[in-house]
Amino acid sequence: MMNLSRWKIAAAVLSVIFGVLFALPNALPQSAREALPAFMPKNTLNLGLDLQGGSHLLLEVDTQALRKERLVNLVEDVRTNLREKNIPFSDLREVNGSVSVLITDPAQMNAAVNLLRTNVGAPLAGVAGSRDVTVENAGSGRIQISFVAEAMRAEASKAVDQSIEILRRRIDELGTREPTIVRQGVDRIVVQAPGESDPERLKNVIGKTAKLTFQMVDDSVSPEEAAAGRIPPGSELLPADDGFSTGYLVKKRALVTGEMLTDAQQAFDPQTGQAVVSFRFDGTGARRFGDATAQNLGKRFAIVLDGKVISAPVIQSAITGGSGQISGSFTAESANDLAVLLRAGALPAPLNVEQQQTVGAELGADAVKAGLISTVVGFVAILIFMILAYGFLFGGISVIALAINGLLIVAIMSLTQATLTLPGIAGHILTLAVAVDANVLIYERMRDELRGGRSVISAMDAGFGRAMTTIIDANVTTILAALIMFQFGAGPVKGFAWTLSIGVITSVFTAVLITQVLLALWFRAARPKTLPIV
Fold it and tell me: N or C: which end of the chain has fewer CB within 10 A?
């Protein structure tokens, strides 16, 4: 093993170059990093919430609101299907989480049941020919439509997954670096936004459902009559966000929804100079919007955001271009925030803030300082031990390998932009302690071989060759434990596991390969008769 091949020397040199290049930006100020050539890496360590400061939110997805919305849509689906087939009905309402409707013509009961079984609800995923609702003849002329329990559970789980992705897009648009957004339990989401010191702004952006719909205004009843309770079936009274105190009576069925938007940008109205939000639909949305405006010339349609009417313009002509603008009492900042929300997409269900914490930048700086001090103290303690145990030569070589190990950990974490947390620093310190274990095993094996009468070069070869089994066994079990913690842990546990996993890999590489290369170079130059560790 002391007869080194070229690939080992090349691997050792390249690893040092890699470590220096990717760790260097962490030692440079911002101005110096920006002045680096384009081919040079510029990423620095991504500090977590506990080191950088920021906001921590624990959110709960309101799955009950999601179910209620589905019930409202189901009622409208039943109403639309029965009217289209001219099946007489009455008393269409929600009852205990289900929808009930009375078919007034007994002769059409079977036709109504078959129609609703075919057309209402949605196909049930994974089950061919089935739907996510059950339609049953409840007797006395009534039909009951209920959601399948498995379908609602899947819908709730899907809502949490969708919420995580939408939150990530929204926070990324704010410029927050490397937010941590993870699921906790069945219906909760943990959001950590390092560097975002204003949790209220964060809540305003990520907590809005941002559900945008375009609905026709129902002019069959005056706003005053609607406010007094005279609301026609299929319509609803929504509050206004434009100063119109009595609100608007609108059709429940949406013409177009925000899910069909492809873009939204903050802009200014060329005529009034006021801030607006310009938007563009996809092909399906553009076609529906064009058809709806062409069929309702002279009527008003309402632009509804989160249950409030932003504006209700009169349709002067068919809008066939698939684009338009939303006007209201916007400032440039509020229009930009709304555009961010619309681009990211609407949340499938409201989010309730269960817990809120703010970590100050000063506290994070103290944690970084404490972590650096701990690392330096640990490194110095290991240096003293190795030199006392194995002398300046062998102990010094192991310390050099340990320093390169630390350099590689910083370089890899900077390259991958993995988040470094305070527990991650603890994992780094533990890695330093574990890293020299491989050197101890190798050196002790050399001592045993020399005591057994082996030659110097034979003892050195045996030290690396026969200790490898023990080294690999010890580190494989460590990395398996780290992977388990990473898979099933959350937050600080994951940070610790990630740093430990990187450290285990780099420590084996440096403790074996780097140490072997340095000792081989020393052996070729000195040709010793014995080893200074005996």
Answer: C
